Every structure is written in structure tokens, then in C-alpha cells.
Amino acid sequence: MVEDNQADIRLIKEALKTSLVPHEIITARDGMDAMAYLRQEGQYLDAPRPDIILLDLNLPKKDGREVLAEIKADPNLKRIPVVVLTTSRNEDDIFHSYDLHVNCYITKSRNLTQLFQIVKGIEEFWLSIATLPSK
User: Fold this and answer.
1) Could you tell me which of 30, 55, 74, 86 has the fewest CB atoms within 10 Å of its CB?
2) Angle (deg, nearest 10), helices 31-38 and 64-73
């Protein structure tokens, strides 16, 4: 998960606490840290490859749009599904994300019940239903 908002991180983790699918959530708080993790650089030399990336667009240091572009341009990372999970409803953000080959664009809800449903839906589809590429 690439998210800078601590409240959103907490809520997403809370929504996944009752998951029946085994998972580990690794959080990067900015775009630079996310790319270092994905490329296994610096302190992340032994970082496991994620099965899916939840990506906020509005991040410090390197925004989510740049992160998405770098992921999808990198032959070693481009097959990792990326789900943009953001508050932005901006049509330009939506179109640009799909132009960069995002796998899914979801607008976060500020309603707690709806946010939990969104996160559970992401979990159910991407970790239970979808067939993901092998590492």
C-alpha cells in the first residue's frame, strides 16, 4: 500500500483484519519510498515482491501518477496489478491512470462503511478471484 494518510492506512488495515485470505500489508508513505521498495534498493534489498499495489495518487516526494508510470514502464514491475485508491474524482486523473495501464481506479469513500466495502471488494476480487501472474 502506498499511502501517506495515516488515518486511511489504519482504516484499510482494520478492514482487512477479518480477511480469510492470508496477507501481509507493507506500507510506503511516499512515492520515493515505494519505488525503492519495489526495486529492492537501499534498506529494501530483501523486500518481497507484492502481489498487488494499492496506490494513492496524492503523495509527497513523488506523486502516485509518477509512481504508476514508473511501475508500468519497468519490465520487472509492470505485471504487478496496481489499484489506484484515491480521493480524486478528477476525470483527468482517471483517464491518465488508465492511459498508464492502471488495473483499476477506485475513489475512496469518506463513509466508513463504504470504505470497508471497497477494501473488502478489492480483497475479494484481487486476492480470491483474479489469477495473478507468478513472481
Assistant:
1) 74
2) 20
User: pLDDT tens for residues 10-38?
Assistant: 888 888 887 777 778 889 999 999 999 99
The closest of 67, 111, 61 to 87, measured between CA atoms, is 111
Biggest alpha carbon–alpha carbon distance for the chain? 38
pTM across the whole model: 0.89
pLDDT at 81 over 90: yes
Report which residue type is found at 90: N
Helix 112-123 vs helix 6-15: angle between axes, to the nearest 10 degrees? 60
Of 3.40.50.2300, 3.30.1490.20, 3.40.50.11590, 3.40.50.1220, the CATH number of 6-125 is 3.40.50.2300
Contact 59, 37 (CB under 8 A): no
CA distance 108 to 43: 30
